[in-house]
Design goal:
Layout lengths: L1 E12 L3 E5 L9 E11 L5 E4 L5 E7 L2 E13 L37 H7 L7 H14 L1 E2 L10 H7 L1 E2 L1 H14 L4 E8 L8 E8 L2 E5 L10 E7 L8 E3 L4 E11 L1
Parallel strand pairs: 7-8
Antiparallel strand pairs: 1-6, 1-14, 2-5, 2-13, 3-6, 4-5, 9-10, 9-12, 10-11
Helix pairs in contact: 2-4, 3-4
């Protein structure tokens, strides 16, 4: 399926501020970026690098005053993706080296402290897809989606205690619970077609049957109508904007439309 997508941000600052942006989806896993534009007003020099997770990162200095950036494009996605609900758990010794980091605790995903919850949620289930899906369903049923209930410091442990949060928090909790069962899990940010209200979105993937499988605890039904911007261990690795100084985001618009 082909989608039009885009993101527009307007900033203001009293001084020049160095930033790292992560706003360009890249072709690869289940998606192909057909075309893309990246506009800055006023224009400023941008350099780009690829981080350790394969994400495209843009470095620039946002000049003092008003600043706007807009990323637009078209992407072809795989669309319908056959769910393998029998995908097995992969033993640690059989995991590829590059996957091992996604079994370890990270800043927002304290997998070493949530095993008891994970064990209870997945009791009597076969190791593998069934466990990850049970975790997704439990979060969907037991954690209240509520804006303003978390902030940039909120972790998976905070969420399971408060029982509320937003998509980032749902993803962190899913990741932590999976990792506590030695299921590799990573955070994903990007666009989800049909999301209401529309915004940049976060979900998690679990490594099962030697491939990454999508799990989104904010949604009732499974959907692959997504465009991925970035992957990482948790939100610290996939921040769309990382600023090194006072920078105010005044407006943000996000869209994704089927063609």
């Amino acid at each position: 399926m082909r989608f039009d997508f885009g993101c527009r941000m307007q900033f203001s600052s009293s001084v020049d501020v160095p930033v790292i942006l992560m706003l360009r989806p890249r072709s690869g896993y289940r998606q192909w970026i057909v075309q893309e534009t990246y506009a800055l007003e006023p224009f400023t020099l941008v350099t780009e690098y690829t981080d350790g997770y394969g994400n495209l990162c843009q470095r620039l200095i946002v000049p003092a005053g008003e600043f706007q950036l807009q990323v637009t494009g078209q992407a072809e996605t795989l669309g319908l993706w056959e769910l393998d609900q029998t995908a097995p758990w992969i033993a640690i010794e059989a995991l590829p080296d590059s996957i091992l980091q996604f079994v370890l605790p990270s800043r927002y995903c304290e997998s070493d402290q949530v095993y008891d919850w994970a064990s209870e949620i997945t009791a009597n289930l076969e190791p593998g897809y069934a466990q990850a899906e049970a975790i997704r369903q439990w979060i969907h049923d037991n954690i209240q989606y509520q804006y303003g209930t978390s902030d940039a410091s909120t972790s998976a442990l905070n969420v399971i205690q408060s029982r509320q949060g937003v998509c980032r928090d749902f993803a962190h909790l899913g990741i932590a619970l999976c990792r506590s069962l030695n299921i590799p899990a990573r955070m994903v940010v990007g666009y989800l077609h049909g999301l209401k209200p529309m915004d940049q979105h976060a979900w998690f993937e679990a490594y099962l049957g030697h491939r990454w499988c999508t799990f989104d605890a904010t949604q009732t039904e499974h959907s692959e109508d997504r465009i991925v911007i970035a992957y990482g261990r948790d939100a610290a690795d996939v921040a769309l904007v990382t600023q090194f100084g006072p920078l105010q985001l005044n407006e943000m618009q996000v869209w994704i439309e089927a063609m």
